[in-house]
């Protein structure tokens, strides 16, 4: 028996590790195009860029882990095609790898800014360790930073840059920050906290071009005719799932590689997990969604490993996520949608926003309220019926409700 995993990121590594934990005895090959040992991406826009950890501190496992667990890590090798008839993965510069089960864990890549000048020097995006190193070097000489996109990564970068005393402007097409992911209340809190730290915002603004001089970015042209001087442009406008290898192999794709509740594609010996997978979720009323988070990558890795090891179960983990912005920690449990009702629960430090749809709890956004977040995860996992009145009532013990 042999398993080949394409993509040595958070999800791919987890499948390999969980297979061994489950006692799987066959061969496990982990193919990754990046040269590094599998590493965590979240600190790239947090501790790593702030200089609080180094590359060794990002590693998900020590170098010895792979040989100890008989996981063949083929680093710096790109998988180019899947031959499903022959059950082989074609890779650059080496013989095809035969598989009995194939796991696609190819992640996602940054969405490029679709305007003239986006390829000028001084325009950066952040997905990989190599991107972070380029950005770190560029920040050393930068003064005026323009960040395109007020999503999680844009705001985390804004917090880091403003803490370094740089001039920061965030340009966002929507009317508020993190508009697709969080409530008006949570968005307003982070907007105000960042503004108090000196970050300027332009909401409802479109970028039409990056202007350059001598091949370097010097300004952004905005749709309303304004021009914003910038010697460093950071683009954080979302990602595109790496689904091409699956599509070319005849598997269903479109905003991710389509999988069923067990994370299998229509070919039962090919699974897809993590940022690249589109799966049906009870937290989205059964709709097929893609989730970009560490939790999702890890739990889907575990789910597929269990199935390969002979213990199949549908994927049903509660989605959760975090984002660190300056001194504040945002944690989200569940999958709130923009139209969901908001009930704010205040505390001495921080607050949580409970989101409801048709009277049913869909998610909880906690700001500096780790205990609320942990209780929310348990409440959502067990589908406990919490009412909006209970959510708002600080005398109601959430921990007891979650028991
Ligand atoms: P990835 O980690 O992207 O791994 C996929 C790997 O596959 C990559 O190494 C890629 O190079 C490789 N690959 C792709 N195609 C091929 C191929 N054909 N052949 C070989 N290799 C291939 N999530 C949170 O929950 N909280 C956070 O605070 C948070 N912060 C983040 C900050 C940043 C800067 C970034 C970039 C992400 C952050 N995330 C955060 C998201 C989280 O890191 C991702 O959801 C997670 O890494 C997804 O894991 P994955 O294994 O699916 O994909």
UniProtKB/TrEMBL annotation:
The lineage of its organism: Bacteria, Pseudomonadati, Pseudomonadota, Alphaproteobacteria, Hyphomicrobiales. Keywords: FAD, Flavoprotein, Oxidoreductase. This is Rhodocoxin reductase. It comes from the Bacteria. It comes from Methylobacterium iners. Residues 1-301 form the FAD/NAD(P)-binding domain. Residues 320-401 form the Reductase C-terminal domain. The keyword Flavoprotein applies. The gene is thcD. The keyword Metal-binding does not apply. Coiled coil: none annotated. Its cofactor is FAD.
């Amino acid at each position: 028996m042999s398993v080949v995993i394409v993509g040595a990121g958070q999800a791919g590594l987890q499948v390999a590790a969980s297979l061994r934990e489950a006692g799987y005895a066959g061969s496990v090959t982990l193919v990754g195009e990046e040269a590094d040992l599998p590493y965590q991406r979240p600190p790239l826009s947090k501790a790593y860029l702030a200089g609080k950890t180094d590359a060794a501190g990002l590693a998900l496992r020590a170098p010895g882990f792979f040989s100890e667990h008989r996981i063949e890590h083929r680093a710096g090798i790109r998988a180019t095609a899947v031959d499903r008839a022959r059950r082989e993965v074609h890779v650059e510069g080496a013989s095809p790898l035969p598989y009995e089960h194939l796991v696609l864990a190819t992640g996602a890549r940054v969405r490029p800014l679709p305007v003239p000048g986006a390829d000028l020097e001084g325009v950066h995006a952040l997905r990989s360790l190599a991107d972070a190193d380029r950005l770190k070097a560029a920040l050393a000489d930068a003064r005026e930073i323009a960040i395109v996109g007020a999503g999680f990564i844009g705001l985390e970068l804004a917090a880091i840059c403003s803490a370094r005393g740089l001039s920061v402007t965030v340009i966002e097409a929507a009317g508020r920050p993190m508009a697709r992911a969080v409530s008006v209340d949570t968005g307003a809190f982070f907007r105000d906290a960042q503004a108090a730290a000196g970050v300027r915002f332009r909401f409802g603004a479109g970028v039409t071009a990056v202007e350059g001089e001598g091949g370097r970015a010097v300004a952004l042209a905005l749709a309303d005719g304004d021009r914003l001087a910038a010697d460093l442009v950071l683009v954080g406008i979302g990602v595109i799932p790496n689904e091409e290898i699956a599509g070319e192999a005849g598997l269903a794709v479109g905003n991710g590689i389509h999988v069923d509740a067990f994370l299998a594609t229509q070919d039962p010996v090919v699974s897809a997990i993590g940022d690249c997978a589109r799966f049906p979720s009870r937290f989205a009323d059964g709709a097929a969604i893609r989730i970009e988070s560490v939790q999702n990558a890890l739990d889907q890795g575990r789910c597929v490993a269990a199935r390969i090891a002979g213990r199949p179960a549908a994927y049903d983990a509660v989605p959760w996520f975090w984002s660190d912005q300056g001194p504040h920690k945002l944690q989200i449990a569940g999958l709130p949608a923009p139209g969901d009702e908001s009930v704010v629960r205040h505390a001495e430090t921080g607050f949580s926003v409970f989101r409801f749809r048709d009277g049913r709890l869909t998610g909880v956004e906690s700001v500096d309220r780790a205990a609320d977040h942990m209780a929310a995860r348990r409440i959502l996992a067990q589908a406990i019926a919490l009412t909006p009145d209970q959510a708002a009532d600080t005398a109601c013990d959430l921990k007891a409700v979650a028991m």
